[in-house]
């Protein structure tokens, strides 16, 4: 049996904060206490460092076929980059192909991820074609540990389902104790605006942003809340960006409905002023688009109000050459941007170090809440006896600068080039093994395990 002792760190969970030692035996935490009187094969001195649960990013798209190409990080490169940024587990989206089964999609994704991922991973199933045979497959997916079902209310003709399919899916998922999540934007309204802009010769990336105004998200978010309330299913909105949409959730809470909300790091830190007339704005062409300063303020407040439970990334990187597919037409720019590696350090620096959120809230929104919501708690998402030893050590004063020159993601630009951050994740343990140490990767292709998830909820 291999043993590791993490000594004398400031150990922070969602509800505790104390200087102590953590003993790890093989993959599991077996003791926590002050000055543990034990020996170990490996001792990690965490004096002056913060020791937190490994991050969970529940919104990533690895090696995903989308808009005529594939996202550029594979399960290997994406999970390796995630580890470098302290994210030890990701949940990736399997996409059902319209006209085909959920099982076929799952088999395809397993063939790409199993044996290649470096960090731990799980899958959501995106239901893009709900019909009588899909309905029969829901219970099979739950039995596989895939307990969350993603819906797209936009991307008509590729991924979008209509409200009739949404009701049917929610009813079936509820029967099997799962969770329905939504990309909640009004696809028809967006497609109309895209067509109008194209017809008028308005083709720069800025018109991607102008084709998805706040109302497109607020309307769909409200509709999703209402249908979820009617069916009684566990509901979660992915990548929520704006005040109008969060107000629909706030309204739902007034009838004592619980709708879980994820925002993503970019919506807290970046805004729509990045969409100028130059093609460079394509770096941030994602859906929904970046919003306004007032929306950032709403989201930070929403985190502290407990209305926003999760900060993910929606990591969906494309090389610059892939972005150029849309150089003459914004509607052909592959939607998505890279973020998997920097979510934790960005939120730590801009959130904790700038006093916007507490260290406990940081742990909640980067790890614990996702573990609870998606059925991995307490194996993942906390530091407790019996949990997987997924730990990150942060040097809270160390400064560093983000750059595409030094990042580990398989993409040739950074959305945060030149950003100076305070707080560096120096050491990362995944299931008891040092996975990253001061910039060096210590585990290889295939170390990552599929995490079968259980009961969802909160
Ligand atoms: O622009 C984005 N978000 N690309 C990935 C697919 C999605 O909508 O999440
Ligand atoms: Zn088929
Ligand atoms: Zn989406
Ligand atoms: Zn996404």
UniProtKB/TrEMBL annotation:
<dbReference type="InterPro" id="IPR032466">
    <property type="entry name" value="Metal_Hydrolase"/>
</dbReference>
<dbReference type="InterPro" id="IPR011059">
    <property type="entry name" value="Metal-dep_hydrolase_composite"/>
</dbReference>
<keyword id="KW-0479">Metal-binding</keyword>
<comment type="similarity">
    <text>Belongs to the metallo-dependent hydrolases superfamily. Hydantoinase/dihydropyrimidinase family.</text>
</comment>
<dbReference type="InterPro" id="IPR006680">
    <property type="entry name" value="Amidohydro-rel"/>
</dbReference>
<feature type="domain" description="Amidohydrolase-related">
    <location>
        <begin position="50"/>
        <end position="434"/>
    </location>
</feature>
<protein>
    <submittedName>
        <fullName>Dihydropyrimidinase</fullName>
        <ecNumber>3.5.2.2</ecNumber>
    </submittedName>
</protein>
<keyword id="KW-0378">Hydrolase</keyword>
<dbReference type="GO" id="GO:0004157">
    <property type="term" value="F:dihydropyrimidinase activity"/>
</dbReference>
<dbReference type="GO" id="GO:0005829">
    <property type="term" value="C:cytosol"/>
</dbReference>
<dbReference type="InterPro" id="IPR011778">
    <property type="entry name" value="Hydantoinase/dihydroPyrase"/>
</dbReference>
<dbReference type="GO" id="GO:0046872">
    <property type="term" value="F:metal ion binding"/>
</dbReference>
<dbReference type="Pfam" id="PF01979">
    <property type="entry name" value="Amidohydro_1"/>
</dbReference>
<feature type="modified residue" description="N6-carboxylysine">
    <location>
        <position position="150"/>
    </location>
</feature>
<dbReference type="InterPro" id="IPR050378">
    <property type="entry name" value="Metallo-dep_Hydrolases_sf"/>
</dbReference>
